[in-house]
Structure formats: C-alpha cells, structure tokens
Amino acid sequence: MKKQWTMLVPLSMLVGGCGLSEAGIAPEYEDITEEVVVEEEVEEVVDEEVKEESPKEDTTTDESSQETEPTDQEKTIEVQKPLYRINEANWTVAPIEEGTPEQVYLLTIDDAPDKHGLQMAQTLHELDVPAIFFVNGRFLRSEEQAQTLKQIHELGFEIGNHTISHASLQDLSEAEQREEIISVSDRIEEITGERPRFFRAPFGQNTDVSKAIVAEEGMTYMNWTYGYDWEAEYQNASALTDIMVNTPLLTNGANLLTHDRAWTAKALQGIVEGLATKGFAPVDPDLIDSSPTEEAER
Ligand SMILES: [Zn+2]
How far is the CA of 166 from the centre of ligand 1 (A)? Predict the structure, then answer.
C-alpha cells in the first residue's frame, strides 16, 4: 500500500504541474524540472529493490527483459522484501531484522465481507491504515458480494482466507477441510486476481490437516493476540475503542482481531487514533512474510 503511494504521489505531482502550466501560473521551466526529478526517483526505487531481491542476476539481460516485464509500479510491489514475520508463539508480527520498527500492530477484520466490510475498508483507507480482511466463502456467492470484495481489494487491502462456512475444522473430514480452504482461495483469486497469502482458522482451531493444506497452498496461518468485539459488554463503539487501546494485552507487534460488525465499524477510527497516541503504527501486510508456516518452529 505504501509502495503504491510512493509511485502515485510523483505521478499526481506531474499532473498538477501540467495543470499549473496550462493555466499560465507556473513558468514552463519549472514544469520540466519537476518531470526530471520524478523520473529519477522512480528509477532509483526500482533499481534498489531489484538488486536486493536478485543480487546474482545477470545484469546484461536487464535491458531486453525490461520490455516484457510488468510496469514499474507492479515490479516494485512484487520485489518488496518482507520486513516482518508471524511469531507462532503469540501470533504477533515480529521484525525479521534488527532496526525494523517494533512498536507496530496488525489490524485484521474477520467474517467479511458481510454488512459493514466495505464501509470499514473505506474508513481505514481514509485513515491510511492497512489491514487484512479474512473472508468467508459464504459471503462471496452472489455477484453483488463479489463486487464488494473486489472494491475492498481495490482499496488496497490484503484479502485472507477464513474458510467457506466458518465451521470448526476439527469436526470435518480431510476432504471437507480441503474444500473449506481451497475453494475459498479459488473464489478470491477469481474475484481479485490474486490468491490469498494468509489463512485464519475459524475459532483459531488449526488441525494437522488444515496446516498441511495451508502449507501446500503456500499460505501462512495466524491466530491473533487479542480481540473483544464478540463479547456482549464490548458490543458498543465506546467500550470497544477503550478496551482495544487500553488492554494490558497490547504489546509490540500485537495482532488485533476485529469483525465485520456495526459497533466495530464505528469504533475503528477511535481505535486507530488511540493506538497512534500510544505510539503504535499499523503494519502493512505487504511487509509480512507469507511463506508457509514451518512446523519445526512450533
Ligand atoms: Zn471468524
């Protein structure tokens, strides 16, 4: 999400510059200077990223291959190096290397896209807060539901897999678990063009079978650090905002669980602002490693 902004801002500057020139407000030479600066910035970003990702690549093929490769913007996103990974001990988001900001939180919205998911995405987009929407196949059946998911994805949000029916995986056969997980990834890809990178089991009940299927699918699974919006006493925006910000469970890298609910939609802005006041920044899911969870670490 942030990477996209670094590309969009210079482009919008360029458009703004042209507009000024046409209106006769800015002299021509200022316009030209701006264009040159913008082009240099874009090239630097792409060069750096490509070098980091593939230092041993033969540089002699660079020029010929560039023409057939995706646009600069797509390429920059593709080679984004992960800065965080999911810590399976407590499901927090942990920096991979020293020096990466630690006082962050990951915001997740489960059981989406139901009645409030799109509104929540729009609110978060306005606040410039990235998040993962963990979606259920039961909410993706109609064309209207598909369009809602497409809009959430187009606002820049990560779409995660949360099974079709939200059943307890431990009560299902291997074939049923496979259906619950893979068909949702298929449906998400059909709608957004991208297969999900993250999986969250209903009720956090991961099974040996589901872990194997999730690994086969190349996804990382995660539970959460804390959440409250399903408890009766927190089903109003002010109580929910207060507990989400002031809970003793708030730690560096906390993985926050919320749901597609009316009171949560109302509480989002207060939660985000309260966490910012405490010095916590939202982490962009684009920066989280999504390679299959390693059993050996458990
Ligand atoms: Zn759920």
Answer: 6
H or E, element range at 254: strand 254-259
Cβ pair 142, 169 in contact under 8 A: no
**Average pLDDT for runs of 10 along the chain of length 298:** 39 34 32 38 42 42 46 56 95 97 98 98 98 98 98 98 98 98 98 98 98 97 98 98 98 98 98 98 97 60
Phi, psi of 122 (to 5 degrees): -65, -40
> pTM here?
0.74
CB of 288 closer than 8 Å to CB of 85: yes
DSSP string, 151-212: HHHHTT-EEEE--SS---GGGS-HHHHHHHHHHHHHHHHHHHSS--SEE--GGG---HHHHH
For residue 273, the CA-to-ligand 1 centroid distance in Å is 25
Please tell me the distance from the alpha carbon of residue 115 to that of residue 176, in angstroms, as a whole number: 27
